[in-house]
Structure formats: C-alpha cells, structure tokens
C-alpha cells in the first residue's frame, strides 16, 4: 500500500494491537458491570478507609446518607462517588449542620473528636501525620472523569 513492506507491517501490527486492546477492554467493562466489581471494591475501600470492619457503624451511616443513596440504583451500592459528594457526606456525618446556623470549625473539631473516640480512625490519623511512612493506610485518588471528579481506590499497598 505504501510501497514499503516494513511500513505496511508496522501499520498492520499497530492496527491489530488496537483492535485486540479494544476487544479486551470491552470484555473487561462487561465483566465489571455484570459482577458489580467497582461497587464492591469501592465499598471495601471505604470500609477500610473509615476503619469499620463490620460495616455497621460509620460505613452504614455513610451509605444511608441521602447524597450517597442518590448515586445508586435501588438496593445497590454506587460504583463511583464524586470526591465532593464523598467529602460533604463525611462532613455531614461527623458534624451535622445545626438547624439554626452554619457549621463552624469548632463544630467540626468536636465532631472529629467524637468520631475518633469510637473508631480507630483517630489513632490512624495521628500516627500517619507523625510518620514518614503511611503504612497500611489506603491511597485514594481524585481524578477528572468527564465534568466531575470521581473518587476511586488505588490498588497499591
């Protein structure tokens, strides 16, 4: 086609590689959707992040919050949670806004002290702040997807 066997071969290999990668990506997305792997992985990550192994305390309150329930289909967990929604939900759980006023920094500090008293989150936060190594604390990435930022759990230890 281009008069060079090497160039034709290179273009053919690139085209075949792109077609195969598209097929594998589509199959991966299909399996992830069928088995709801993203929602399950996100749930496990949030459970680990909030240090609630039984998922009956902070995690259940998190998933029962109206902002999170709005992201999921009926009786299912969401696959993605925008980072802003995650932060607002966690703030609302830790330190709810009083009906008569706004949330202040002192309200937030008191809410964090209360939340840290019944979970090990405070111990993890204090040890990670004073340590150069993060240990087993999961890494969370906020990255742009479309027009919203989404929260997704990273897989590195």
Any overview of this molecule?
The chain has 157 residues and is mainly alpha-helical. It folds into 2 domains: 1-35; 37-127 and 139-157, no CATH class. Helix content is 56%, strand content 9%. It contains 7 helices and 3 strands. Strands 1-3-2 form a 3-stranded antiparallel β-sheet. Strand 2 and strand 3 (148-153) form a beta hairpin. The protein is elongated and about 80 Å long. The protein starts with a helix and ends with a strand.
List keywords for this structure.
157 residues, mainly alpha, 2 domains, single chain, 56% helix, elongated
Query: Main β-sheet, in a few words?
Result: 3 strands, antiparallel
How many structural domains are formed by the residues?
A: 2
Strands across the major sheet, in which order? 1-3-2
Please tally the β strands and state the result: 3
Mean pLDDT: 78
Roughly how many Å apart are the termini? 49 Å
Shape: elongated
What structural class do you assign from the helix and strand content? mainly alpha
Give, in order, the helices and strands.
HHHHEHHHEE
Number of helices: 7
Unreliable sequence segments: 119-149
Give the DSSP E fraction (strand runs of 2 or more residues): 5-15%
Helicity, in percent?
A: 55-70%
CA radius of gyration is: 22 Å
